[in-house]
Amino acid sequence: MSTTGITAPAGFTAAALTAGIKPSGNPDMALVVNTGPEFHAAAVFTRNRVVASPVKLSRQAIADGQVKAVLYNAGNANACNGRQGDLDAAELQHQVAELLDLSPSDVGICSTGLIGELLPMGKLRAGIDKLATDLGDNGGVAAEAIMTTDLVKKEILVQGNGWSLGGMGKGVGMMSPSLATMLVCFTTDASATPEMLDTALRAATRVTFDTLDIDGSTSTNDTVFLLASGASGVSPTQEELNAAVLAASQELTSKLQADAEGVTKRVAVTVEGTSTDIQALDAARTLARDSLFKCAMFGSDPNWGRVLAAVGVADADMDPEHISVYFNGQPVCVDTTGTPGAREVDLSGADIDVLVHLGIDGPGRATVRTTDLSHDYVEINSAYSS
Amino acid sequence: MSTTGITAPAGFTAAALTAGIKPSGNPDMALVVNTGPEFHAAAVFTRNRVVASPVKLSRQAIADGQVKAVLYNAGNANACNGRQGDLDAAELQHQVAELLDLSPSDVGICSTGLIGELLPMGKLRAGIDKLATDLGDNGGVAAEAIMTTDLVKKEILVQGNGWSLGGMGKGVGMMSPSLATMLVCFTTDASATPEMLDTALRAATRVTFDTLDIDGSTSTNDTVFLLASGASGVSPTQEELNAAVLAASQELTSKLQADAEGVTKRVAVTVEGTSTDIQALDAARTLARDSLFKCAMFGSDPNWGRVLAAVGVADADMDPEHISVYFNGQPVCVDTTGTPGAREVDLSGADIDVLVHLGIDGPGRATVRTTDLSHDYVEINSAYSS
């Protein structure tokens, strides 16, 4: 049994291989199968209104709270391919179902890669045939197979009391680049109802994946699955389940942030001193998406004026004359005025912590994690498809 | 009399000099004076809630529709400097008023540069003394003195029937970078009421400066003044005035776009096929601010999938299955599906035209002008204050 990842919990097998979708020749297809005895599941998807064909199918598959297998491919998003894209995704779903003796509606599909290219169906058909015969303790290769511009594979394992939760993820941004979808698969041998899984997953994603904002772009393909086999025979409480899914999501979010496209700085933006958490989140997201702020972070430049300019347009209650900013715990701006020594704060490390107080005596608070805007980000994203 | 710029219309003088605020030693202060016989004026300001001290004063000055002089400095924004910043701006306003024998409330103040540094008041005081004695036909030097990271000075002249409208502007983005405020001054020798001027200015800025979006950031200092001397003795109709201010704003917007920070591509984004102009504007702005789209433009990469992913999150009515995209007039995506040859569209030129139809049979339409996201943009903005 694996020591981490999706095949570490009991009741799961996986297979992965190189089908030839990625030009690199690296593994690019994976299949994850829940061997039971239970097949409960939950999932969350991108909020984009333009969604890929596999997202449409996976939404239908999760509707009854049961998913027994998920097929992954990288190198092609199967998004914006019209009716042919829908037909192709459905054919893959049916092929997996037939080979594993499942109902098509118990098979989820996740794709990531370039938008607007038809899937090389010959390669995928042959890949599925082989995947179905290779199922085993292969979570590690599956985690490699879903990578696109990711530099490292991302796996986690959280131990419960007599049960465990494993996971794999890919993506260089959340709700993020069209070419860098975030895909996550969690597996657990805990016994839990679909409702419990859904509750735990939504609570966790709200404060983890949903608040990782690399570049403000929202993918057409983002999907997070949580599959539960019940194979441990242990039924955790809702609270125990919530805690494990949250811990797993936090760890995977950190791994995604650390491997974001062109990242040289990991930046945590916290906003407080406003009326509601939603307002704080809007302000934090506005700052996390501000190109000038992100360039300053790349330059290790404590240019707090850009923080003020950015949050000043946020949809949040604030007192414009009493905003404070802290870089790595040091006050650089108090009451909308710079402090002595503010320009000398050392931001040369890889982790930067930014705290903004909007000057209102309210309970609103939120944290968004982002990265800097670097030359490598521009290079990667101006050269990807050409 | 100048052949272009703010001292081309009758009834205006200007002076400019190097006060030593900019480290470069280039001109950094300017004074524009309306010599009458009329002193009507209008102005628009940044929508940011965090505003610089000079913006607060200029808002008060314009309240009665009369402004006789505007003082400019570059190299220091006098923003986020607390009470001392307000006091400094007021002192400058009073000094100008005293030397020119005006009421302080008839003097506007505009600053641009780094946020959060106190003004070097000694240099500014000496500068004003000299500016007041140097007034003349110096619009060209004034246009230089307001530059920050601008590479070229920006002046325009629009001819009316017996009157004219001149202007100068600076800024590498509209409603834009905290370190690259957009400042514009229009002068006209037409005779027009403050209400006529205000109507003309707001109508023009709505479709010009307000739809130039370089990086989505909103400055603390953006200010556009329109000063009218009546010296021509001609009273244009509202329509004639509107047309001249619109033409002047369009020309200056083009100059600002062409000189934006790190620009290698000038990109016009038009959205139609949605319910209202406001929705179309939201979608156009969402696309114009999308880092992945802007990186693709930098790479001359017709990666239309990023256009779909970006507009899919806009606050606009759309039919997600029937979106079309045109690059330079060529259809690259029809009904949310790529066209044959879409990847071969040539985007190697400096001007790129993007048209997005959101698939709804509605009258909404808007154009936003932006630029690409280049290595130079990152370089300029990671190194500015350090």
UniProtKB/TrEMBL annotation, chains A, B:
Keywords: Acyltransferase, Amino-acid biosynthesis, Arginine biosynthesis, Autocatalytic cleavage, Cytoplasm, Multifunctional enzyme, Transferase
Active-site residues, Swiss-Prot/TrEMBL: T181 (nucleophile)
Top-rank taxon, per record: Bacteria
InterPro entries hit by this protein: Arg_biosynth_ArgJ, ArgJ-like_dom_sf, ArgJ_beta_C
MF terms in GO: L-glutamate N-acetyltransferase activity; L-glutamate N-acetyltransferase activity, acting on acetyl-L-ornithine as donor
Family as reported in the entry's similarity comment: Belongs to the ArgJ family.
Reaction(s) catalysed (UniProt annotation): L-glutamate + acetyl-CoA = N-acetyl-L-glutamate + CoA + H(+); N(2)-acetyl-L-ornithine + L-glutamate = N-acetyl-L-glutamate + L-ornithine
Site (described: Involved in the stabilization of negative charge on the oxyanion by the formation of the oxyanion hole): T112, G113
Full protein name: Arginine biosynthesis bifunctional protein ArgJ
Pfam families hit by this protein: ArgJ
EC number: 2.3.1.35, 2.3.1.1
Site feature location: Cleavage: A180, T181
Stored CDD domains: OAT (cd02152)
Assembly mode: Heterotetramer of two alpha and two beta chains.
GO biological process, one term: L-arginine biosynthetic process
Binding site for substrate: T148, K170, T181, E261, N381, S386
Protein's cellular compartments: Cytoplasm
Chief localisation class: cytoplasm
Gene name as annotated: argJ
Role according to the record: Catalyzes two activities which are involved in the cyclic version of arginine biosynthesis: the synthesis of N-acetylglutamate from glutamate and acetyl-CoA as the acetyl donor, and of ornithine by transacetylation between N(2)-acetylornithine and glutamate.
Pathway(s) this gene product operates in, as recorded in its UniProt entry: Amino-acid biosynthesis; L-arginine biosynthesis; N(2)-acetyl-L-ornithine from L-glutamate: step 1/4; Amino-acid biosynthesis; L-arginine biosynthesis; L-ornithine and N-acetyl-L-glutamate from L-glutamate and N(2)-acetyl-L-ornithine (cyclic): step 1/1
A GO-annotated cellular component: cytoplasm
The species this protein was found in: Corynebacterium alimapuense
